[in-house]
Structures are given as structure tokens and as C-alpha cells.
Amino acid sequence: MRVQFVLLAMLAGTTIANAADVDAGKARANAVCAACHGRNGVSVAAAIPNLAGQKIDYLISQLHAFKDGERKNDLMNPIASQLNDQDIENVATFFASLQGASVSSTQSELLPNVAKTRVSFPADYKTRFTKYLTLNFPDENRVSLFYANPAALKAASTGAPLPDGSMILVESFSARLDEKENPIQGSDGSFVPDKLAGYGAMERQAGWGAEFPEMLRNDDWNYASFNTDKVIRSDFNQAQCLACHKPLPKDSHLFTMKRLREFANTN
């Protein structure tokens, strides 16, 4: 069916472009897509593709592939799943209408309302928060330690959604390696932490999500990534966290919610 759609679109020539609403596509793109791909279709980071001047049929086919899950991407799948066919045509037509990025094109600026985070580093987390999970990442020889503040832990123990005032902090370490460059495991099977790589955090407070477009908003959660000096990373783009956590409203947008509830109910 998808192949037939693309073939018909190619045969129709400008049919899709004529049916699409470029202004509606621009509005949608500037509110959401621009957080990563830039308002002018020139992306905000080297690892993110430019979309300016891309062919309409290609953009349509890729957005449908993301929407249907045929193409896997933790960020694009949740975003594309919220687009209907008309949205896809509108957005594709808008990006195709832009002048293609030149080799000398600079990166676009981050969208201020999305990139800015209100999360501050919790200096007292070692004494006030509770560690509830140690998680190995074998493909990266990395291990992360997850901490929850009292508000999050209390709600998890009752099975309630995490309320305003909840905060999760993650310490990320490289794993200590043996002489064969394999991660050393402790008695519980967790990798032994070696060098601190940084921190991640998510926190919700009343009204914190008000400025985010609905397609990205995670209730009132904000996210942050800190370097080893506990300072927000200069290249941090909150839009990527929002898109990745978007599909988890039933778990308070927390990937480790099940583990948090299990810990809270047994400790």
C-alpha cells in the first residue's frame, strides 16, 4: 500500500504539493520540528539531518515509516505517531519549499522555549534521595545509578502517578574493566562504576510544561543533562528528552517506573 501511495504521488507530480497547506506545515514545523531540525530546515546539531530542500516524496515516505514503526527511532517514532496524513503532507511540502542548506550553512539555534530547562542540580541528593536502581549498559561499557527524591518514592509506593515536586537523578559512569577489557561485575551482577561521565535529571513542578508544544509536552516534566562539574551541558537540547519520554504518560514519563515501584514496595 505504501509503495502504491508513493508511486501515485510521483505520477501525480504536483498533486500533493497543491493539496498541502504550506502555512500549516510551517506552523507545525516551527512549533515542534524546529527544535531539532531548525526553523529554516538547517538542523541544530551535526548528527541531525537538514530537511531544507529535501524532496517531498522522500519526506512523506520517511514520516510515514516513522509513524508506522517501519523505521525505528526513539525520537521520531513518538513525534510522527501524532501526525495525520494531512500533517505529513503539509510539513513535507514546507521543508521542500525551503532553500537547501549549503556546505557553509551554520547550525540553527535551539528553540528557547523548548531547550531551556528549569531543572537545577540537587546538591543534597546523596543524603536526601534514595538509590533505587543500578542499570548496566553492556554495549557502551557503562553503568548508571538511579536516585528518587522523597516525593517520587512516596508516590511510587502507593502506585500513584509521580506528582509535582518529584525528581529523578541519574549518575552515569564508565564501567571498570578487567585486563581483557571486559566490565567487572559486583556480587549483584551490576558493573562496578569507574569514572563519572555526568548526570541526567528529570523534575516536575506546576506549570513547567506550559511553554512546550503539546506534541512534545510531558505533563509538567523538565529534563537536564549535567557534566561532571554539575553544570548544564552547553549542547543540551531538552526537545530530544521530551520526544523520547513522550510515549510514557501511564508511567509518569519515566522509563524505570516499574523498577521504582518495585523498590518502593519492598523497602
Kindly describe this structure:
With 267 residues, the protein is of the alpha+beta class. The protein has 11 helices and 5 strands. It folds into 2 domains: 2-109, Orthogonal Bundle (Cytochrome Bc1 Complex, Chain D, domain 2); 115-266, Cytochrome P460 (Chalcone isomerase), CATH 3.50.70. The protein is 37% helix and 16% strand. A 5-stranded antiparallel beta sheet has the order 1-2-3-4-5. A hairpin with a 4-residue loop joins strand 1 and strand 2 (142-148). Helix 3 packs across helix 6, helix 4 (56-68) packs antiparallel against helix 6 (85-97) and helix 9 (150-158) crosses helix 11.
Number of helices: 11
- How many domains comprise the coordinates? 2
Give the number of DSSP strands. Answer: 5
- Please give the alpha-carbon distance between the first and last residues: 52 Å
Q: Label the structural class.
A: alpha+beta
How many strands, what sense, and barrel or not for the largest sheet? 5 strands, antiparallel
Question: Radius of gyration from the CA trace?
Answer: 21 Å
What is the CATH third-level topology name of the largest domain? Chalcone isomerase
- CATH homologous superfamily heading of the largest domain: Cytochrome P460
Strand order of the largest sheet: 1-2-3-4-5
Q: Which regions have little confidence, pLDDT < 50, spanning 5+ residues?
A: 1-18
Proportion in β-strands: 15-25%
CATH class of the largest domain: Alpha Beta
What is the CATH architecture annotation of the largest domain?
A: 3-Layer(bba) Sandwich
Q: Write down the overall geometry.
A: globular
- Average of per-residue pLDDT values: 91
Share of helix among residues? Answer: 25-40%
Order of helices and strands: HHHHHHHHEEHEEEHH
